[in-house]
Amino acid sequence: MFGIAAVLRGPMSKGFWARALFASAFLLTGGARAEPQDLPRVPSTVAPPLVPPAERTPGATALTLDDALRIFRARSFDLVIAEAAVASAEGDVLAARALPNPNVQFEYSHIFNYRADGRNLVLGTCVGCASNGILAQISDNAALENVLSGKLSLKRAVAQAALAAQKMQRRDARRLLEGQVKNAYVAQAAAAAALRYAREAQGFSAKLLELSRIRHPAVINDGQLALVVADKAQADIAVIQSEGSLEESRAVLALLLGVQRIDVIYDADVRTAYRLPPELANLDARQLVDLALAERPDLAALRLSVRRARASSALVDRQAFPDVALMMQYYDVGTAQNAVQPPTLTWGASLNLPLFYQLQGEKRRAQADIDTQSALANKAIAQVVSDVRTALAAFDVARRSVDILETTQLVAARRARDVAETQWREGSATLLDVLYAQRQLIATNQTYVAALQTYWSAIFALEQAVGIDGRTP
After folding, report:
1. Cα dihedral 186, 189, 195, 200 in deg (nearest 10)
2. What is the pTM of this model?
């Protein structure tokens, strides 16, 4: 297995990053196989970075995605809970491995109205008689029977299967939670990029307002000036809203990272692109499904639950044979033959006779558990296939959308705004033309940031669907 692909750093250029798309660094098992031509492929491309923020927030710490995942793995409260569940299952295994402790009983007794000193009129002189007695008893609590019947080994098998399933559930929890961290991280980066574009639009509106006031009232009238003032106010509101969205996204990411101090601020810095390993790029949908079926921890956990249910059913069948406890007892009240109780050593066994109930209810529940876990495992297989297909479809849409935005729409919108501004300065275009072009550019920038965020989310969804993450050590 090998992990993360080559990392490319540097500012985003419109020409180069227009080709971008798929990114993630998956761990791979095995080599590439023959691919049917009628199935969709994952293109061997590079993921574009989100636009970095225009300026660093005062007091904030720059945070890469790798840093965010490292902090999450060290601090996450949810991972601590998952670890505690594994520790509990490990305790169950230790308990299942242990033999029952032997039972020891000791009693002291005294007989009243009895003289054992030789002046007893009935017994006469009795050497070795006593009015005090002792009883000692030890039992194995069915330990030997549990070993010989195989009950102990079946209990161990049930506990070990449950532990293995719990470990897979912990791994699955990490898979899902890390997906949340990645999406929250990209959401913060997208909010920072949106704020950068909003401030850029605000700066343009401010310059436009300044020029309009110079030209008023000679060139533009009161109504046109009012339009520019309203446009500037709208740009100011957009900046305020973008700042609020950025702060909200910071709060979400901080919660996932376990931050407990309000003065700890992280700035997501998505400037890095990740090239897809050629081996994974050559996989088609069917091969990705095969990989997911082998790697998804939730499916593995359900398969282990089926094993646990079957072991539990076998244990119930074995427990229909009752536990047999072996015991040994010593009892005496005096040591003479004619004492109240001469020394007596007794061996025996005790068990509950299954005359009225033979665990029919437990057997029915055990079989129902097998049926339930098997159905859940089969359902999970269908879910894996659906997840991979859905993730591939979402990725393809996001890839093509970003491609159009990068190669055509962004360039055209900015060019239209710049030309409209130049023509307005020269008197060949109206103020409404400039405002319309500016609004189109703002809308295009917003669409572009949203498309990049959707694209990265599609990458993370495909990682989750396949069940591998090349960024995980």
Report:
1. -120
2. 0.73
Q: Are 76 and 256 in contact (CB under 8 A)?
A: yes
Q: Tell me how many degrees the CA angle 449-20-190 measures, rounded to the nearest 5.
A: 20
CA–CA gap between residue 200 and residue 321 (Å, rounded): 80
Q: Where are the domains of the chain?
A: 7-102+140-320+358-466, 103-139+321-357
Over 70: is that where the pLDDT of 15 sits? no
Min mean pLDDT across 32-36, 50-54, 165-169, 415-419 is at 32-36
Cβ atoms of residues 175 and 467 within 8 Å: yes
Instruction: Name the CATH superfamily housing domain 7-102+140-320+358-466.
Output: Outer membrane efflux proteins (OEP) (1.20.1600.10)
Distance CA 366, CA 318 (A): 12
Closest by CA to 275, choosing from 3, 468, 32, 462, is 3
Burial of residue 260 (number of CB atoms within 10 Å: 0-12, 13-18, 19+): exposed
Which helix (DSSP H) or strand (DSSP E) does residue 266 occupy? strand 266-268
- What 3-state DSSP class applies to 62? strand
> What is the full DSSP assignment across 320-370?
TSPP-EEEEEEEEEESSTTSSEEEEEEEEEE----SS--SHHHHHHHHHHH
The C-alpha atoms of residue 330 and residue 312 are separated, in whole angstroms, by: 39
Q: Specify whether the CB–CB gap between 393 and 340 falls below 8 A.
A: no
Give the relative orientation of helices 285-295 and 431-466 as an angle to the nearest 10 degrees.
Answer: 50
Cα Rg of the chain, angstroms: 38
Residue 406: Cβ within 10 Å count: 23
Mean pLDDT of 274-299: 75
Kindly report whether the peptide bond that precedes residue 354 is cis, defined as omega within 30 degrees of 0: no
pLDDT digits (tens, 9 = 90+) for 332-370: 988 888 788 889 999 999 998 888 999 999 999 999 999
Q: Which amino acid is at 56?
A: R
- What tokens appear for 40 in the block? 């969709």
* 3-class DSSP state of 124: strand
CA gap 244, 261 in Å, rounded: 19
Q: How many CB atoms lie within 10 A of CB 317?
A: 14
Query: What span, in angstroms and rounded, lies between the C-alpha atoms of 211 and 203?
Result: 13
In 10 A of CB 208, how many CB atoms? 20
Question: pLDDT for 95-146, tens place per residue?
Answer: 999 998 999 999 999 888 777 765 555 556 677 788 889 999 999 999 999 9
- Classify residue 452 by burial, with Cβ atoms within 10 Å: 0-12, 13-18, 19+: buried
